Amino acid sequence: EFMLLRREYGNDPRKVLKEGREVTACGVNFIRELRRNCLKEVTDYAKCLDDCRGGEMLIPYCRRLQYPLDICVEEKMGIKRPMVGYFSKLHVHESQKEQPPRPEYPRNYSEEFSKVMDELPENYPIKLDNYKRYRPYYNTFTEND
């Protein structure tokens, strides 16, 4: 909910303070429960990450300590680690809160352009070759213009 609302309100944190507090409280409660239930496994895993290869924190070198941590969290807290690739897939969230009103665009640029072009005198010189289409995928040195 927090991420959706924050994005819909245009990243204005003042409008989603309540939801932000809930997210923070959830994270703090999770850390407390983790510390209470699986302190030894978390400490071993963290030490492995800190000590491995000069502090590079390479997870593959600590897999043997990650498995006991996963088992402890699943058994004592009821939280199962998602499968690899879970967070790279699209997930649709059905929100119970109503969407904030969408902002109306303050300007209609095509109407403004038409109005300005209509106000120009008939003999006004318009050089269309000055307005080249931007094509970053083409090399400019190969074009003949």
UniProtKB/TrEMBL annotation:
It is found in: Mitochondrion. The keyword Electron transport applies. The keyword Electron transport applies. InterPro entries: NDUFA8 (IPR016680). Keywords: Disulfide bond, Electron transport, Mitochondrion, Repeat, Respiratory chain, Transport. Its main location: mitochondrion. GO terms for biological process: mitochondrial electron transport, NADH to ubiquinone. GO terms for cellular component: mitochondrion. It comes from the Eukaryota. Accessory subunit of the mitochondrial membrane respiratory chain NADH dehydrogenase (Complex I), that is believed not to be involved in catalysis. Complex I functions in the transfer of electrons from NADH to the respiratory chain. The immediate electron acceptor for the enzyme is believed to be ubiquinone. Belongs to the complex I NDUFA8 subunit family. This is NADH dehydrogenase [ubiquinone] 1 alpha subcomplex subunit 8. It comes from Meloidogyne incognita. The lineage of its organism: Eukaryota, Metazoa, Ecdysozoa, Nematoda, Chromadorea.
